[in-house]
Design a protein that fits this description.
Layout (H helix, E strand, L loop, with lengths): L11 E6 L1 H9 L5 H6 L4 E7 L5 E7 L2 E4 H8 L3 H29 L10 H11 L13 E9 L5 H10 L13 E9 L6 H15 L3 E6 L8 E2 L24 E2 L3 H38 L3 H11 L17 H7 L7 H12 L2 H13 L8 H4 L7 H7 L10 H17 L8 H9 L5 H17 L2 H18 L2 H16 L10 H4 L15 H17 L3 H11 L12 H18 L22 E3 L12 H14 L6 E2 L4 E2 L4 E8 L6 E12 L11 E3 L2 E6 L4 E10 L4 E11 L3 E6 L11 H5 L9 E6 L5 E6 L10 E4 L4 E9 L7 E6 L4 E4 L13 E2 L3 E6 L9 E2 L2 H5 L9 E9 L6 E10 L4 E14 L2 E9 L7 E9 L6 E10 L2 E4 L9 E3 L4 E10 L5 H17 L11 E8 L3 E2 L4 H22 L5 H7 L7 E9 L6 E10 L8 H9 L7 H15 L10 E7 L3 E4 L6 E11 L6 E7 L12 E2 L2 E2 L3 E6 L4 E10 ...
Parallel strand pairs: 1-4, 1-5, 5-6, 6-7, 11-31, 12-20, 22-31, 43-55, 46-50
Antiparallel strand pairs: 2-3, 8-9, 10-13, 13-17, 14-16, 14-18, 15-17, 18-19, 18-20, 21-23, 23-29, 24-28, 24-30, 25-29, 26-39, 27-38, 30-31, 32-33, 33-37, 34-36, 34-38, 34-40, 35-37, 40-41, 42-44, 44-49, 45-48, 45-51, 47-49, 50-55, 51-54, 52-53
Helix pairs in contact: 4-5, 4-15, 4-19, 5-15, 8-11, 11-12, 15-16, 16-17, 17-18, 18-19, 19-21, 21-22, 22-23, 27-30, 30-31
Length: 1321
């Protein structure tokens, strides 16, 4: 495709006029001659020839006409100064016209905004109108000078002679080769006749050549002016330079049609008959020189042929061309004319001989003399052109580019954008960005704006928005506010468009994104949007658009909820405050725009709570689930009784409070004025708030950056209706009214397909407060020993028995007959009728070391407790204005910080119940850590040993252990034989250890409990319904360690022990059976199992009056044989299996949980103990090996199942420990087969054969265990039957190896020992 060159790449023709012609044009109301001639450019259908004489037809041939005197004066100015002035001049023109351009663009339809922007056309015209020659290129160097005179001169020939003799005052670096042409204008009113004119023409041609034209003009205006194109805007000459004759420019010609045609004919003849042939002639001559320059001398070729007898071939050596800097190019051409090769390339380009032009330009580029800037215009568009662009723009890549470099980069960018086909497809927008460099000038900013516009058309929105912002920042520094605002709006529009997402719309919601729950703006770059809006707001404010600025500053605030804006919030708030004050100064408060809405919220509605008179916490507190569960517990307990639980209500004339949680999302301080709450009623109709309730007004609330604060607003109701707290009202800073709704978004709906496909929520909920007539009202607060109300948190030591006094006051006008207390199960609470306060100790010591306590063996939940008013007040009711102090004992062993929640329910009759809430945070200080283990023993009296370790894990508490007790239902626990006092003080991070022995209790009800559990689990798994059999009570046998034994039978200690045991039991069941409801688990398993053992530790703090207890619960003791295996097998084999895979998997998972639970554990019942006859032997090994008798004791710890075992003795090491000991080798019988009935033991006597002196580890054996099915039991003992006579059924197999804890035998060589004794003697 033929290149489309811009008009600035065309022959530059200058004109110089005689004074008579200048005066003639002025008196004829005509513009300057060069303007008249310029109006005929471009000329259509012009044919040129290449150096190969190939004709080239130009559809349009551009010419540029200018005044030689102006060019001469412009060239005298320093080029750096002129470039700087040129850039400033363009910025001034843009600044003056920017507002009108933006307004016109706003009035256009959206389709028109996709064309070329007016400011881009302006900068293009300014660049193309710069015809002053440059040192670095020759496009503006004159190719011809037209000497114009008129026949109105007294002597035209003399006038021409004066013009010809005039010195061409151009710098030496301007090409002196140009065409001289003479134009003679012969007006109608000239005194010369036709013959004289002919003679004049012939004389001039004879003297000056054939390049002469005689132009006949009437210079009479036509019937209407002829419109012409104005000259492109050109940089004015410096103010110190004055032209001798200044003719005003115009956009119309008062010329007759004959004169216009004659002038047009002259322009065409000048081009086709003079200028083009002259350029073709020069191109031919210069091309021949250019070709000869690249050839080798013929003398060198002939010498090579003569010396070597063949054609000389010179190897081509690659030449690395370096990109010349602009300063080097300028210095090389500072005082010399441009190289002929460059003029050859330029004239060839004018003639359309692009092939020759490219060759010449490539030659120049390789020589470092330029040429890379024009090559992209002549070559086919491709991505490889980027190297030429980078080379041409290299001077502006400097840290501080010169004005000349910026000027030439701007010219190149304009030429590339308008002359390269598919400029955008080859990444031309990047070329414009490079040309813009880092200079903060208006033209370079418009280059960035053009690059952004091209990227926008290509669909690269993010890149376009970035360049729009960069351009706007430069324009803002130049003071061009209209274009700055336009570019910022364009960037904001692009940034606000979300990218196309490939994820499902439900992805963000399913992944709970964003994680902090903050709202997200539609754009993906909120920080950039905030910066853009801030800049737009400042521009609007400085332009006088205060209201628009306030709106923009308000909009910026919403981004503070999405990201960290610590660096901008304070600035934005200051600008907003200033703009708002200015808006208020020009508008009365009532005339402020009503749609100025604050985009951020300071209230946190879901954490706002209603606090009635005397309440510590409300039913709308943050721990809502706890209060709802307590309400449900109380309601369930009243199902068979009368009475309905009413929600807490306010009373007419009694003030209640709304605790509003305020959170400042900004990183700066804010001020809220006249803060109050708007109240309405749930009934229809507009009722003034003054008739509903009186709301407190807080004058000022100062919130610091990111501060979170609770503000209490008092409200006094006037009507007995349900009050709806709809919104908070305040003034932001000064007089900006804000109405912030206090609604809570409804839950997500998933009932229909449409609701599941698109997020749909239930209607928003408002805080509602029912109001009733004045009646009974109860308040609860905590008081200390000095009878003063306290609101501090409770600080307890782990396991401490803490005394609390709650004062319950009747603040109503009616008597209260019933008061119920319902507490949460996160802490155990005991109502203390004996009013134990601080300093109370444990009970007095017992005489014995053990005791038995009857306990309920069922797991019960929290139950309401009725306060005995008659006992506490000596009256069956609580009169108005009276109060009662209720003493509580608190206990908790969980090392977590939680809240004490108590639901207080009261009534003055049996029909309606009201409640209030008491809550207090409590903190637990870690104190003791208890660990224990149970190991079997070889004793016939006691089967197991219990070892307990107690560690003080506190940092600074010295804890005294008052007592260590153990409890179990079916095991007898014996303290150590050495009975000493346990009043031991444990320092921080110290540990004490104690040991107990355990034996099975005679006459226990183990089998009854097991059968009951099996029946209940069977009914549950097989779906036979709920069993009516209840778990019977049981008896706990408690053993105490030490000489001072304190009873645990006191009601409050027994309650705390049982409550702690029950919490840990429920927690373990919930973890073991996560799919079974808690209520079902409580009915399936008893609280105390037959194999469980607990440890109870009583402690005191010697430095204070604090005391408490810590428990270690549910240690499993004894042997078990899969109690629930048969029930599980029946459940797996039952008929009627579900056809749904989900149901089947759930059933299998449930059976797996029962199979792995504690009640179905399977253990190895055999325990082996190895013991030699004595630990040290002496033997004379000269007589042979030493036989050592070793006794193996095998005990069956199962009370129900027989066991068959095989004891194999081998000489291989079975234990990885004691590698320095010899391996035990046995002789005699090495395999023993035995059968052990339940709870029986047997001994095997073996012989260890020691061949060397040393120590021997008693390993080298293996026990194979085969557990049989249980033997029927009657009256708690197995039947006396021969198990060998019955068919043997194996239920489990085990394999035992030495553990490394077996004993070691030391064998001494008797001979060496005797020698050592003799030596000593």
């Amino acid at each position: 495709m033929e290149p489309k060159l811009p008009s600035s790449i065309s022959p530059h023709v200058t004109t110089i006029l005689s004074p008579d012609l200048t005066e003639l044009l002025s008196t004829s109301s005509l513009p300057p001659l060069h303007h008249i001639l310029q109006s005929y450019s471009p000329l259509p259908i012009v044919t040129t020839r290449t150096t190969a004489l190939t004709p080239i037809q130009h559809k349009a041939f551009h010419l540029r006409f200018s005044n030689l005197e102006e060019i001469e004066l412009a060239c005298k100015e320093d080029e750096e100064t002129r470039s700087s002035r040129f850039i400033d001049w363009m910025g001034t023109r843009i600044s003056r016209r920017a507002s009108k351009w933006v307004d016109d663009l706003a009035s256009r339809p959206p389709e028109a905004a996709q064309g070329r922007m007016p400011w881009w056309e302006e900068i293009r015209k300014c660049v193309e109108g710069d015809w002053v020659p440059s040192r670095t290129e020759g496009w503006n160097h004159p190719t011809s000078i037209i000497y114009a005179v008129s026949t109105m001169a007294p002597n035209p020939i003399q006038a021409i002679s004066h013009l010809y003799a005039r010195h061409i005052d151009l710098p030496p670096w301007v090409d002196p080769t140009f065409l001289r042409f003479i134009l003679i204008v012969h007006p109608k009113k000239s005194t010369l006749n036709a013959d004289e004119c002919t003679a004049l023409l012939n004389a001039i041609r004879k003297q000056y050549g054939l390049h002469v034209h005689f132009l006949n003009l009437t210079l009479e205006p036509g019937p209407s002016p002829i419109p012409i194109v104005s000259l492109p805007p050109q940089l004015p000459l410096p103010s110190t330079v004055q032209l001798a004759h200044v003719v005003p420019d115009t956009s119309e010609l008062w010329m007759s049609e004959t004169d216009a045609m004659a002038t047009g004919k002259f322009v065409r003849e000048f081009l086709t008959q003079s200028l083009i042939p002259w350029m073709e002639k020069n191109v031919l001559e210069w091309n021949e020189a250019f070709i000869n320059k690249g050839r080798l001398p013929s003398r060198l070729i002939s010498s090579t042929r003569r010396l070597f007898g063949t054609t000389g071939v010179v190897p081509s050596t690659p030449i690395t061309s370096q990109t010349p800097s602009f300063s080097s190019m300028q210095s090389a051409t500072s005082s010399s004319p441009p190289p002929q090769t460059r003029r050859l390339a330029e004239l060839a380009t004018f003639l359309g001989d692009y092939k020759l032009a490219v060759q010449a330009l490539e030659s120049l580029r390789k020589e470092g003399k330029g040429g890379s800037a024009i090559l992209p215009l002549l070559l086919s568009p491709s991505s490889s052109l980027i190297s030429y662009a980078a080379q041409a723009l290299a001077p502006v890549f400097a840290e501080e580019p010169s004005a000349t470099s910026l000027h030439h980069a701007l010219v190149n960018a304009i030429r590339w954008e308008s002359g390269i086909h598919d400029f955008s497809k080859i990444g031309g927008e990047r070329w414009l960005v490079w040309a813009a460099s880092t200079a903060e000038e208006a033209p370079t900013a418009l280059l960035l704006g053009r690059a952004a516009f091209m990227s926008k058309l290509k669909g690269a929105k993010r890149k376009a928005a970035l360049w729009y912002v960069m351009s706007a920042h430069r324009l803002e520094k130049c003071g061009i506010k209209a274009l700055t605002a336009h570019y910022l709006r364009e960037a904001r529009s692009l940034y606000s468009q979300s990218p196309q997402k490939s994820f499902s719309p439900a992805y963000a919601e399913s992944e709970k994104w964003p994680p902090d729950g903050k709202e997200q703006s539609p754009g993906v770059y909120p920080l950039v949007l905030a910066s853009i809006d801030h800049s737009l707001g400042r521009i609007k404010y400085s332009s006088g658009e205060t209201e628009a600025a306030v709106r923009l500053f308000l909009g910026i605030l919403r981004y503070s909820t999405q990201l960290d804006m610590s660096d901008t919030d304070e600035v934005v708030i200051d600008d907003f405050r200033q703009a708002l004050q200015h808006l208020e100064s020009t508008h009365p408060t009532e005339e402020l725009p009503s749609d100025l809405i604050l985009p951020i919220r300071f209230c946190v509605p879901n954490q706002c709570t209603v606090r009635l008179g005397g309440q510590n916490e409300s039913f709308l507190s943050t721990d809502k689930e706890t209060w709802e569960s307590l309400e449900q517990i109380w309601t369930d307990s009243r199902r068979k009784r009368k009475g309905k639980l009413e929600r807490p209500s306010a009373e007419i004339g009694r003030q209640f409070w709304l605790d509003v949680v305020l959170e400042n999302p900004l990183e700066t301080d804010v001020l809220l004025k006249r803060f109050t709450i708007h109240v309405s009623t749930s009934s229809e109709g507009n009722v003034p708030q003054e008739d509903i309730a009186i709301a407190q007004v807080i004058d000022e609330i100062h919130l610091y950056a990111k501060e979170r604060r609770t503000v209490s607003i008092g409200l006094t109701p006037k009507v007995a209706k349900t009050l709806v707290l709809t919104e908070a009202r305040y003034y932001f800073f000064s007089n900006l009214p804000v109405k912030e709704p206090l609604s809570i978004r409804g839950k997500r709906l998933n009932d229909t397909v449409a609701q599941r496909q698109e997020a749909t929520y239930a209607p928003s909920q408002f805080t509602k407060v029912p109001v009733r007539q004045v009646g009974c009202m109860l308040s609860v607060e905590q008081v200390d020993e000095d009878d003063e109300e306290g609101d501090e948190d409770i600080v307890m030591v782990q396991g401490e028995i803490y005394s609390v006094v709650l004062r319950i006051t009747n603040r109503g006008i009616e008597e209260i007959n019933e008061v119920w207390l319902t507490a949460a199960d996160n802490i155990s609470i005991w109502i203390d009728p004996e009013k134990r306060g601080k300093g109370h100790d444990f009970p007095e010591p017992l005489s014995g070391s053990s005791e038995e306590i009857s306990v309920h063996n069922i797991v019960t939940g929290t139950r309401p407790f009725l306060l005995p008013l008659e006992t506490l007040t000596s009256s069956p009711s609580l009169p108005p204005g009276h109060f009662i102090d209720v003493h509580f004992l608190l206990h908790s062993e969980d090392i977590i910080d939680s809240t004490l929640n108590i639901l207080v329910t009261y009534s003055n009759d049996a029909d309606a119940y009201f409640y209030t809430c008491f809550a207090r945070n409590f903190e637990i200080i870690p104190a003791l850590s208890v660990s224990a283990s149970i190991d079997p023993t070889s004793s016939d009296v006691c089967s197991y040993t219990l070892r307990a370790e107690v560690e003080n894990i506190s940092d600074d508490l010295e804890i005294e252990l008052a007592q260590l007790s153990t409890s179990s239902t079916d095991w007898v626990i014996h303290p150590p034989h050495r009975s000493t006092s346990l009043h031991t003080t444990i320092l921080p991070h110290q540990t004490i250890r104690r040991a107990f022995t355990l034996g099975r209790k005679e006459g226990s009800e183990t089998e009854e409990i097991k059968e009951l559990v099996v029946d209940k689990v069977s009914e549950f798994l097989l779906g036979k319904g709920t069993s009516e059999r209840q778990i019977p009570d049981t008896t706990l046998r408690i053993s105490h360690d030490g000489t001072e034994h304190r009873s645990l039978a006191e009601s409050h200690l027994q309650f705390f022990i049982r409550f702690t045991r029950m919490r840990q039991h429920i927690r373990a069941l919930t973890e073991a059976f996560p799919t079974v409801p808690r209520q079902v688990l409580q009915s399936l398993f008893p609280l105390y199992g037959p194999n469980s053992v607990d440890i109870i530790i009583l402690w005191k703090l010697p430095s204070s009056a604090r005391y408490g207890l810590v428990t270690f619960c549910d240690m499993q003791t004894g042997v078990a044989h899969g109690l629930l295996d048969r029930v599980i097998e029946q459940a797996m084999e039952r008929k009627g299996k579900s056809i749904y895979a989900e149901t089947k998997r759930e059933h299998e998972l449930l059976l797996q949980h029962f199979k792995e639970c504690v009640w179905n554990r399977e253990t190895d019942p055999l325990v082996v103990s190895v013991r030699p006859s004595q630990p040290v032997f002496e033997h004379d090994f000269t007589r042979g090996a030493c036989p050592i008798p070793v006794q193996f004791t095998v005990r069956n710890y199962s009370p129900t199942n027989p066991v068959r075992y095989v004891l194999r003795l081998s000489g291989s090491r079975m234990s990885p420990t004691h590698l320095n000991s010899f391996v035990a080798t046995y002789s005699g019988q090495l395999t023993y087969h035995r059968l052990l009935p339940p709870s029986q033991s047997t001994t095997v006597n073996a012989t260890l054969r020691a061949r060397w002196a040393g120590q021997y580890l008693l390993d080298g054996w293996r026990l194979e265990v085969d557990v049989g099915e249980a033997i029927p039991i009657e009256d708690g003992t197995p039947q006396e039957s021969n198990p060998a006579a019955e068919p043997w059924k194996t239920r489990a197999r085990y394999l035992q190896h030495p553990t490394g804890s077996e004993g070691i035998i030391l064998i001494k060589n008797l001979v060496q020992h005797n020698r050592g004794t003799i030596a000593q003697d």
